[in-house]
Design a protein that fits this description.
Two copies of one chain form a homodimer.
Chain A: H1 20-23, H2 47-54, H3 60-69, E1 70-72, E2 77-80, E3 86-89, H4 95-100, H5 108-111, E4 113-114, E5 122-123, E6 129-137, H6 139-146, H7 151-173, E7 180-186, E8 191-200, E9 202-208, H8 211-214, H9 218-221, E10 233-239, E11 242-243, E12 262-267, H10 278-306, H11 310-338, H12 340-357, H13 365-387, H14 395-410, H15 426-434, H16 441-459, H17 464-470, H18 475-485, H19 491-507, H20 511-553, E13 566-571, E14 575-577, E15 580-582, E16 585-587, H21 588-594, H22 605-608, E17 619-624, E18 636-638, E19 644-651, E20 669-672, H23 674-684, H24 688-693
Antiparallel strand pairs in A: 1-2, 2-3, 3-10, 4-9, 5-9, 6-8, 7-8, 9-10, 10-11, 12-13, 12-18, 14-15, 16-17, 17-20, 18-19, 19-20
């Protein structure tokens, strides 16, 4: 088993017991950002500060070129590195693709992949790549739509307005040069933007090393430094069946960055909670242990299942890595929230802004959020199991849920649908639904049975829905009946049900469809409650806090991460760990010294056999004080000249507290050095075609 | 798989990452106990209060008789119910015995057990039963030994003195009527006692029902009420191969208790932390999630392993139940510590006592404990894995550890040994070591591999000991080599190594012995640090706080639970759950209505086939407001006349917060009603011999 998991946004099969939109919700910081801290939007990049602090000149042209060369993948970042659509990202960002195109006979996740020619490049079934083309401020339009309304009505009106604006934007772009238009909430409702993306939905894999070198050290080394991971993969974007023409791309500087050099990271940090209110942080502190318990049990089930055979190990490798990454992240997040200094700082900042804002007691937004957070805690367990789907944890249930919901929602006007089923969302949803990806019945049974068993534990055996499902069956027998009886693993069956709409869904006797229908009403009821009693209240209160914050600090502050494009600045820097200086670079020699005979420290033959031929002084990984988090995986590390001098793939252990604050002394980002990528492509894998294209 | 786990002290194979003695350490309460609250020692039972509140007269004779009829098992309570050594306890207290005497062909844990005659009663390999004969206050002697010493020296002197007093006590009792003498620390060092026990170490199983009715509802129903569990088992104490003569026994009143009746529980509450300082509670709040993660992963591994076959399911059934019980307890303990009202009350009580005591700042015991708690947090992870043995999680390692340590310790004078190897501890230790119990290699590999993998994760792959163990091996291959290579599963081999002492251990090439030797030095170093830097400081500070508390409140307060004999008073009471009254009794009819076709709600054939023959109105379980916790499992529920009117086996979900405080409105204890025991013995199992002895 390999553990390539690192800094993707943890999108594990286990949904977290809070709505992401609420978990990410946050009040704005009391204090402007310190040096090197900040995930800046491209329209508000502090170029003057950078000039002053780092003596680097970032021009509007530099910003445009880097923006157009930066790509958003489904849960990572990437960049164009050639004029013919070649894309650089992390191995762990391509891990799902590699797992999807693997079979029992050919394990491309474990063994790696190299297309000798372009014709040999293999399409990733669900991967896409988005380029941010344009940003439009729509704050005034959204505020106009919600002015004077109560919280619930404002929440509805806000969503409807965002849907309408997205639709109008996509219509305006037309079919010839289509755009994907997404609204973005920044500063927790202080600003609303419409982002226009060009989407490449034919993305193919060209190169990936073996998981054993990409994620050398596996889960034990994850979020550690010093480090030796070749966490790289090369993809290519296609348009109309041909390599995409991509004049806006970044050149790799194979010499890489030097110590103290000014560097920039362009990418998509997934989510930070730096500006949550104290009440929200305390609620998270109480919820994280529950998530960790469920995730840890699933980890144990995966690991034990994986020991039953090679094929079993293969089919759990990818979800297990994601899960272990998520566990490490949340474990350290919990540690951060248990650190007294953090909550003290948050309390002080909150008290300061409350004093400045001086809301009358009955309009105090912090009090409103505190009450809503209590309500969220009450709702979160049933919500997570029933609406979040954790009680029916399986790929097939997720297909069934989409089919059942889409059939119902498509019968309504777009603006009145659940947001994930509006017209502009349907193409991507349909593609995800009908993509030909393998479904493993044994893994499905494992996750479904686990989910049902824990739902019974947490909701109790006498809960109406639990009793309906489990009066006759054990979790195992329920899972077996549903998964063996369902035909939804066949993409053609899913396509038919999608095309057939409500009538087809109503007529379906597929047991998983029937379960999804059975669950739908209680699930929607919980969602209604969560949206009306929590989300609406929190969103309204956060808008108020955001306005107070702008009044105090303007936009000298940066918004929390929202998996949208950001740019930050920093430099190549080590740190001091308990009295010992950790230098910012690692070199090849120590990789070989650290290797052992067993996973995850066993080197692949391709490396161990070539030890004598390689320069032991070759740079391997490096660290910077860049302010990045999950979602930045695969981001290019860029020098002042706009060249790639590293490939971000992780942070050190202190970086995980970056969810809540930026610890400038210890928070470090970890990158693959270009020198080891060069060595790998030329000396280890002999990737001649790619080498030619990259000028090697 | 069955889940009979309930209220045993959670002694799972996963050791908690704090030293029990420190976890249980606590400052004394600021306030005298409220009505119905309290785990009173027999020498300080508030009979006058009981007379006044409950109109029940508890005489010294009553106290003596009940005390002499109450038994301490290895992790539970029990009572004598006949003059010929018959013992009543819970099924889940006999579960380990039932598992130990089961084989792949005869699963006595699942299928139950009934000895038709006394000759058919089967000895439990490791069970014993202790009766508390005498209590002696040795506070003055201990205080004299430590007077004027620094914390570390006092800690050493205290242990040495306790060892000497225990030894002198056992010597004085002599061989003819031997006593087991154990020192007891009450009120966190406010009092020291010497307790003298008569030990029965030949305990045999006479009757146990099927696990499916003993633990009907399994883990989902554990700590719930209403409830339908026949959680009973009948054992018998033997002396010199014959049933013990036990004139001090309790009569079962088959009609049971009625609503509001005054009732008493005599038993051995294992551990409470009601009087910890705020700093200690906060440290626990930070440590519990780590325990829960590790336990949850092990739960997942056990469950998945159990699905590989019937025998696999059987061999993990007993440890899985204990583990699931432990998870539920700690999950609710964490919830309690995250409840703001609890810490607020603790802060207020602490502030009050600090004011009364008025220690000078440099002698403030609360500050000393806070600093020690921080140090404990730093040490607890390596301590837990290396000295606690969590990194080598297996029965065979525990045998090896005992053999290696005992060999070294037995070479020293008794008072200078580690406390668990002093002369008075050796007989029980030797018996535990050499008992003929099954060792399951596949289960051993599972737990060992899990422990080694997590040790690598938490200590890091570059930790010296981790690197020594895992440079050449994976956790799985290390586990396989050690467990397949070790001969320690054979009791005769263990006996030889015990008898052979240091020379035999030094000569042994058993790989598990060699690992235990390898680990011993770093393990002892951690223990030294924990004892000197944490335990010594905390114990000294707690003695100070205890004296301040006595000065304020005398002994109108009760000591925290220490798995020593206590008596409490209360009454048969329901409670109000979120606006709904929960009545205090359940009846048989609902058991059948609630049964389903699948575990853990499937009834055994013995019950389902006799439904028509039974009175549906028969009382099944009942609840009282008795203040009990884990360790009280198997305790007799006694009326004012000294008759058994119930058999304690669990608490409701609110009872778990009883670790930290007593919530009189909601905390309820759950018992088996005598009426259903009567029905079971006479109508279901036809236990004629036992029935005759019990006067049925």
């Amino acid at each position: 088993m390999t553990d390539p998991g690192a800094w993707t946004i943890p999108m594990t099969s286990l949904s977290r017991l809070v709505i992401p939109s609420i978990a990410a919700a946050a009040a704005l910081a009391a204090m402007p950002a310190r040096a090197d801290e900040g995930m800046w939007t491209y329209d508000n990049f502090p170029a003057a500060t950078v000039q002053q602090q780092l003596n680097a000149q970032i021009t509007p042209q530099w910003l445009d070129r880097v923006r157009l060369a930066t790509l958003r993948l489904s849960n990572c970042t990437a960049s164009f590195i050639s004029g013919e659509g070649l894309i650089l990202t992390n191995h762990h960002c391509a891990a799902s693709c590699l797992a999807q195109i693997s079979t029992a006979e050919r394990d491309r996740l474990r063994d790696g992949f190299l297309a000798d020619t372009r014709a040999a490049e293999v399409r990733c079934p669900t991967q896409y790549a988005d380029v941010l083309m344009k940003m439009e401020d729509i704050t005034a339009k959204v505020n106009a739509a919600t002015a004077g309304l109560g919280d619930r009505e404002a929440n509805e009106a806000r969503k409807k307005t965002l849907t309408q604006l997205e639709q109008a934007c996509e219509r305006a772009a037309g079919q010839r040069d289509p755009r994907r238009c997404e609204s973005v909430t920044l500063y927790q409702g202080g600003q609303y933007f419409l982002y226009q993306y060009k989407r490449y939905d034919d993305v193919r894999i060209a190169f990936a090393p073996e998981a054993a070198i990409a994620a050398f050290g596996g889960d034990p080394d994850n979020f550690q430094f010093p480090r030796w991971c070749l966490d790289m993969a090369i993809l290519r974007a296609y348009e109309n069946g041909k390599p995409a023409v991509t004049p806006d791309h970044l050149k790799i500087n194979w010499a890489g960055a030097v110590a103290n050099e000014a560097v920039f990271v362009s990418g998509h940090p997934g989510s930070t909670d730096r500006l949550l209110t104290v009440a929200q942080l305390e609620a998270q502190r109480a919820e994280l242990p529950l998530w960790l318990q469920r995730a840890s049990e699933l980890r144990g089930r995966y690991i034990q299942f994986g020991k039953t055979g090679a094929e079993a190990a293969r089919i759990v490798a990818d979800p297990l890595s994601s899960l272990e990454n998520g566990i490490k992240v949340r474990r350290k997040q919990l540690d951060a929230l248990l650190e007294p200094a953090l909550l003290e700082q948050k309390r002080a900042a909150e008290a300061d802004l409350r004093r400045r804002a001086a809301f009358p007691a009955e309009q105090d937004p912090w009090a409103a959020i505190e009450k809503a957070a209590q309500r969220e805690t009450e709702l979160s367990v049933p919500y997570g199991f029933i609406e979040g789907g954790a009680g029916f944890n399986s790929v097939l249930f997720r297909y069934a849920r989409i089919l059942v919901r889409a059939a119902a929602e498509r019968g309504k006007p777009s603006e009145e649908r659940l947001r994930e089923y509006v017209d502009t969302a349907l193409p991507a949803l349909q593609r995800q639904l009908t993509a030909a990806v393998p479904v493993y019945p044994e893994r499905e049974k494992l996750t479904f049975s686990f989910g049902a068993e824990r739902m019974r534990e947490f909701l109790g055996p006498d809960h109406a829905l639990v009793r309906t499902l489990l009066a006759e069956f054990s979790p195992d027998s329920l899972a077996a009946g549903l998964i063996d009886g369902s035909k939804l693993a066949d993409p053609a069956v899913r396509q038919q049900l999608w095309d057939g709409g409500q009538a087809a869904v109503d007529a379906s006797e597929d047991p998983m469809i029937r379960i999804a229908k059975l669950v739908d009403e209680p699930a929607r009821a919980l969602r209604r409650q969560m949206e009306d009693e929590v989300e609406a209240v929190v969103d309204a209160a956060q808008e108020k806090i955001a306005r107070a914050r702008f009044a105090a600090f303007g936009t000298r502050i940066y918004p929390d991460a929202t998996f949208t494009l950001r740019l930050n600045y920093g430099s190549v820097q080590g740190w001091n760990e308990a009295g010992t200086d950790v230098p910012p670079f690692t070199r090849l020699a120590r990789l070989f010294e650290r290797a052992t005979d067993s996973e995850p420290f066993r080197l692949p033959e391709s490396w161990s056999s070539k030890r004598a031929l390689l320069d032991p002084e070759t740079y391997f990984n490096l660290i910077t004080n860049s302010d990045i988090v999950g979602g930045n995986s695969g981001s290019p590390l860029i020098n002042a000249q706009g060249e790639i001098v590293g490939l971000m793939f992780d942070g050190n252990i202190h970086s995980i507290s970056g969810s809540y604050w930026f610890d400038a002394a210890k928070n470090r980002a970890v990158a693959v050095h270009p020198a080891i990528m060069h060595t790998a492509l030329t000396r280890i894998y002999d990737a001649r075609e790619l080498g030619r294209e990259l000028g090697l």
